[in-house]
Amino acid sequence: MMGHPSMLVKTHDCRVLINPVLWNRDYEQDTPFPDVDLLVISYRYPDYLDLRNLGGFPKCIDVLIPDDDLIASRLRRLGFLRLHRLREFTEVKLGSTRICTTRSERRIPEFGVLFEEESDIFWNQIDSVVSPTTIDFLVSRYSRIDFLLVSQQYQPGFPYGPNRALIFPYEEYGKLLYNVSLIRPKAIAPGANGFSSVGGSSWLSRIVFPVTREEFCRDVRLAWPELGDNIFELDARDSLTFGDGHIGSKIVRKTGDCLSYADFAPKLGQGLKDPDPDNESVERMMKSIIEEVEVHLPAFIDDNHSAFAEHRDWNVIYELDVVFRGGRRSWFFDFSSGVVAARRGRNPLSNFLTCISATSFYAMLKKKHGWDYAILEGHYRRFTKVYSVTPLGLNRPEGVRIADLLSVRFQYSPGPRPARLITLAPGLPRGMNKY
Q: If exposure means fewest CB atoms within 10 Å of the residue's CB, which of 45, 91, 196, 392 is most exposed?
């Protein structure tokens, strides 16, 4: 695994480098150029078709690309002489290795890559959009998939930019998991678009990706239980070896530091600040909030068991982020466990996310302000992605109200409504008024 969509595939008689992004300011550090027999470019986006990286390779090397004029023109300008424009389900043979391009449902030319060598088959979906029809064709053509590098996340076309609703994509994510159950691989790893962006584009990682890598691996195991322990999380510079139809138990070898992963979930608390208009003591607020979260909230959950029945039924892992001046504190409550306690830190499997400013939380504790203040002042945000996964598909709690733990603990009560003065205009019939 070279990083992001880049992967070096070594068979008995060839070395194939897919989407060589060996240097990128948003993803990795510099990586030495490997000695390879073949390059594969699967997609035209710059995090796949990186001209700076490609310029360092010999120009006489064979390059497999989609039937895309843009990719072809760029590579010719770089001096590459041996370009092979391939359509979907085109097979190329190198010695005993067969390489087949697989279909993507995007409008822009793109493909995944399937490798077959003797009895072993590896399918790298890269970032392609795969349909059940494509899966049916491959299953009928090949005996099985030994190892699947699956597109980890549903990317809804960057919804934040076009101003589409920022909700969890239940249907689309369910299709990803359903596809795995159709493919029935012997082993699997999340790949390609599971890596985070940094720098000026780092906000995308918290908006675009609906689940963490840990959540995805858990969900895949539920969707296709026959995988057992053959689910692997590959970081940059990790390697995985399999052959003769078998995958060993110790196949991941760390050869360097792993990438630093963001927790891929729409963290709507990102950027939330605590203005603290009353200039409260941070130490005083911290002490009161910690006591509330770690002592009183667990006791409240235990005393009000029926109020959290749906939380337990749907295995809610509730994460609470409290923003103080100069930092934040995080806790999570796992309702799938027997005793629900407040645990410090973040949980990559959290599916109910709440962020609130320390001032608003403290004001509710002291009964100075209520929910109107927290919500209208923009000091409270929430995001839910509660669902369950079975081999038959993904279920969501439609028609079921799973309340925010804080809203159950601190019931909403509007303050006194101000008096309203209505003046009757002279000459109008009684009952008609003029404002």
A: 392
What was the pLDDT predicted at 313? 95
Do residue 141 and residue 85 come from a single domain?
yes
Cβ neighbour number for residue 335 with a 10 Å cutoff: 20
The predicted-structure confidence for 387-421, as pLDDT tens digits, reads as follows: 999 888 899 998 888 999 999 999 865 544 445 55
Report DSSP letters for 335-355, one per residue: TTSSS--EEES--TT--EEEE
Q: What percent of the chain has pLDDT over 70?
A: 78
Domain that holds residue 105: 7-247
Segment 125-153 mean pLDDT: 90
Residue 371's Cβ-side half-sphere holds a number of Cα atoms within 13 Å equal to 11
Phi and psi at residue 376, in whole multiples of 5°?
A: -70, -30
Which has more pLDDT, 76 or 26? Answer: 76
Give a yes or no: residue 414 inside a domain: no
- DSSP bridge pairs for 123: 114, 148
Helices 170-183 + 132-141 axis angle, to 10: 10
- Asked if 21 and 7 touch (Cβ cutoff 8 Å), the reply is no
Site of tokens 């504190």: 329
CA–CA separation, 3 and 160 (whole Å): 25
**Spatial distance between the Cα atoms of 86 and 187, rounded to a whole number of angstroms:** 28
| 252 falls within a domain | no
Report the distance separating Cα 149 and Cα 153, nearest Å. Answer: 12
Sequence-ordered list of residues with C-beta below 8 angstroms from that of 394, at least 6 positions apart, any chain: 170, 173, 174, 177, 178, 387, 388
Query: Quick one: pLDDT at residue 250?
Result: 42
C-alpha dihedral (72, 77, 83, 87), degrees to nearest 10: 0
Query: Following CA atoms 217, 220, 221, 225 in sequence, which dihedral angle do they give, to the nearest 10 degrees?
Result: -160
Q: Does any domain span residue 422?
A: no
pLDDT at 119: 78
- Residue 166 to residues 27, 210, 268, 270, 344, Cα–Cα distance (Å): 25, 10, 10, 14, 27
Q: Over the range 301-322, which residues count as b (16 or more CB within 10 Å of their CB) and which as e?
A: beeeeeebebbeebebbbbbbb
pLDDT, one tens digit per residue, over 252-269 is 555 444 433 445 455 555
Domain count, the chain: 2
Question: DSSP of 221-284, one letter per residue?
Answer: HHH-GGGTT-B--PPTT-B--EETTEE-S---B--SPPP-----S--TTTT-----TT---HHH
Q: According to the model, what pLDDT value does residue 258 have?
A: 40
